[in-house]
Amino acid sequence: MKQKSGRRSGGVIGKICWTVLFLPVFLGLCLLANLVLLLLVFPSKIWPVACLKINAVLGEAVAVLLWEFFTKILGLSFRTENTAGLSPSSRFLLIANHIWAFDFLLVNRLADKIHRLDSLRYTLKEPLAHIPLLGPIFSALGYVFLSRDKTKDRGRVKEKIAFYEKTGLGYGVVLFPEGTRYTPQKQRLSAKYAKRNRLPVLKNVLLPHTGAFFEAASAMKKAGAKTIICATLLCRDRKTKKRHVPCFWDVLRLEDLVFRAKIQKRYLGSVPDTRKEAGCWLRTLFANVFDF
């Protein structure tokens, strides 16, 4: 089953003008969210569940605003496949390949279809925690910041999932196991590394990292989670029908592109209990599901 969103929009000049008008609204909303968060700094230590709920409402409002801007003004077109079989779950692990700086928009849309947009907990690079206005919002939403330090990252993932469990609220942990956006140059380096270490050579995605995935899967299995949602993201040029690797400035020509997500489910209990075997399981998954 396919679903489509987005429509054609105006020219580049029109998009720039709308963006100039939109930015103050977006930044104003972020500033308002930060002021609310400032008032919740001390109460959050006493009422973490109430604080997280309020932050989730704010985060969802920002996500909806961004989606409307990208689809109605910039012309983002996004199609999803196989979402009909997805049902809301209190806990789930969502993994996706990383193709674009705005992949979070596509993942948010997928979560919205199963009424779990307010439950998403992203894993992000640590520098994003220090972005003015946005950094505090990410932190308040309970996102996990990864530093590429294996010891620190493992501890952070375990700590956050333990916190989610204490709140009693549903949550969906979002992981991009490649750790960086796909580019042909990075793919060549990834393929060389795979050949050198006798690992699967992937043509359309990068070799995934195991650390954060294994820690999240292990902790969530113990908590009773059962579902892994695999979202294979793809971008094609509308005219040539060929695969396109999107860059940041493609936001000005989104009407020429079509983004697509193919969804598959896996049983979380099938992930092995050792890091080495879990790494093999994840690489096999990427070869069979994500290397489209």
Biggest sheet: strand arrangement: 1-2-8-7-3-6-4-5
CATH architecture: 3-Layer(aba) Sandwich
Number of domains: 1
Task: Give the SSE order as H and E letters.
Answer: EHHHEEHEHEHEHHEEH
Q: What value does the average pLDDT take?
A: 85
The CATH class is: Alpha Beta
Given the helix and strand composition, which structural class is it?
Answer: alpha/beta
Radius of gyration: 19 Å
What is the end-to-end distance?
18 Å
Q: Can you tell me the overall shape? A: globular
Please report the total strand number as a whole number.
Answer: 8
Report the sheet-strand fraction: 15-25%
The main pleated sheet reads as: 8 strands, mixed
CATH topology: Glycerol-3-phosphate (1)-acyltransferase
Unreliable stretches = none
How helix-rich are the residues, as a percent range?
40-55%
Output the number of helix runs. Answer: 9
Description of the structure:
- Helix 1 packs across helix 5 and helix 6 (150-167) runs parallel beside helix 8 (211-223).
- This protein is globular.
- The chain is built from nine helices and eight strands.
- It starts with a strand and ends with a helix.
- The protein is 47% helix and 17% strand.
- Helix 5 (134-140) links the parallel strand 4 (120-125) and strand 5.
- The protein has a single domain (2-290), classed as Glycerol-3-phosphate (1)-acyltransferase (3-Layer(aba) Sandwich).
- It is α/β, with parallel strands linked by helices and 292 residues long.
